[in-house]
Amino acid sequence: MALPSSPFTSKASAFHIPPESNPPCSLLQKHPSLSLLSGCKNMETLKQIHAQFIKFGLHNTHFGLSKLVGFCALSPSGNSNYALLIFDAIENPTEILWNTIIHGYALSSNPELALEFYVKMVSLGNYPNSYTFPSLFKSCKKLMAAQIGKQVHGCVVKLGLDNAVSFTALIGGYVSRGCLDEARELFDGIPVRDVVSWNAMISGYAEVGRFGEALSLFENMWKLNVTPNESTLVSVLSASLAVFRHMQLERVEPNDVTFLNILPACAHMGALDMGRWIHVYINKNCHHLQNSSLWTSVIDMYAKCGSIEAAKQVFFGLETKSLSSWNVMISGLAMHGNGHGAIDLFSKLIEEGIEPDDVTFVGLLSACSHGGLVELGRLHFSSMVQDYKIQPKLPHYGCMIDLLGRAGLFDEAKSLLECMDIEPDGAIWSSLLGACRIHGNLELGEYAASSLFKLDPNNHGAYVLLSNIYAGAGRWNDVARIRTMLNDNGLKKVPGCTSIELDSVVHEFLVSDRTHPQSEDIYRMLDEIDRRLEMAGHVPNTSEVHYDMDEEWKEGILSQHSERLAIAFGLISTKPGTTLRIVKNLRVCGNCHSATKLISKIFNREIIARDRNRFHHFKDGCCSCMDYW
DNA sequence: CTAGGGTTAG
């Protein structure tokens, strides 16, 4: 249905300002039939109640009518036609009735009707109030009608309605269009903010991946102000302090929705301290959330922050385990390279009589792939199709291609690729390309790369992988050619960035970064690391540097990779023996991988590193991935 | 009596 256009543009706009607000119309009646409505479950009962209303004369009261229309228009088991039928028979509908109808349409699949009704309401001389606007904003959001949304916005401003609800709905509209800075401006201007307003803003940041801002906004709910500087991204103060401050200051209390938004942000940032604190908080304050899917997010957070043991503890402590909680646990084990653990858990799930879904198998197959369990991977893949009647989707094929490719079984990978009933996506070609890099398969690598470029010419990572393959083969001309291609296409490298959380503060490092306040000490430590690595016989493998530079320069760059900086910072900032946890946005390079193994031994530190794909637990000179990644 | 925020599983 077309949007009403004229009323919004003409002089006699629906968005003009009323001379004064209407007096509230309240007609409260007490009658036994009214209590019937609260238990009303479906339209059939509603019609009986309606009949009762007529019998006792309640159908002429605004209160009774509001209740009836409210159920029909707003309840999921209601009926908007019936609501309209009642509504149309009312001579002078109250604001409440108009608002209810408008809200009903805002919730429906025809939100444009809400706007139409609003126009009708105003043209009949009724004025909108603070209850009207949130529904209108919701409709505009659904319809992606930014212009109309702005007009409604203007109207709210002119009317001077300064309640949080209208503002929050408006923020929701801006957030949904990705206009976060505008949303933030509004948010900062709300006279009174409550949890829902905070949640709207936090979820906006989290949704578009501005996790740092989401986290710091969360922190600000208690005004735990820490001064951030350019090189450190402050996430939150220590947990106990936060709770204490929270109790002292009467700040807005977060709720389950807040955590639902914040936990994934912690997971992405690897902010374990903060995640842990939220977990404690939920345990203490949210007893009513026993069976909430919030726990799934907690498990996922622990797994992604490198604490797989804590994830297990939460998972096994759950009274009722939803399929999603099984799924995140299996995927978590997969991420940590614990293939057998994932498979065992899958068997348990089957024993408990739970029906796995396609997501379960993505986790299971990726566990096989990260654990190098070729035979088991094949087995579960065919079992998925035959026993569980689940059609493989792209991620399943992706896991299998990854599994076979890493194992160097290129013929089998190719034949699987050929018999797929779906077009392979970029992820599949990337896996194959990655496998070709590991095994130095130049021919297939070139093919995978060209397929990938067709799908996504701007995939910087693909150029790097291909270039690495050429570099490994000493084909420096081709390396240079790729570099030119990158420049010609104006592609910028995603800068490698590693973060480390210390005392609840997340510190981020880029390659050769010197912006950290403790930069001097960090570089002194880097020299020390280099010296001791050399003593231990570490020979930097420069083959993955995709520029043809002289060896010494390459080594220089290698030892200043972002992960090395984060580790050096971790070494100088923590007590001997403390486990270091780092998070990298890209895949760890081969050189850093072997260097980190040695560092774990030389400095006697366990180093848990998350890269783009998975976790590496470095200990005593070995890595949990068994060099298989 | 009517209004705003909602994740996770490669």
UniProtKB/TrEMBL annotation:
It comes from the Eukaryota. GO terms for biological process: chloroplast RNA processing; RNA modification. GO terms for molecular function: RNA binding; zinc ion binding. Residues 537-629 form the DYW domain. Coiled coil: none annotated. Gene3D superfamilies: Tetratricopeptide repeat domain. PPR repeats lie at residues 94-128, 194-228, 322-356. PROSITE patterns: PPR. Keywords: Repeat. NCBIfam families: PPR. Belongs to the PPR family. PCMP-H subfamily. This is DYW domain-containing protein.
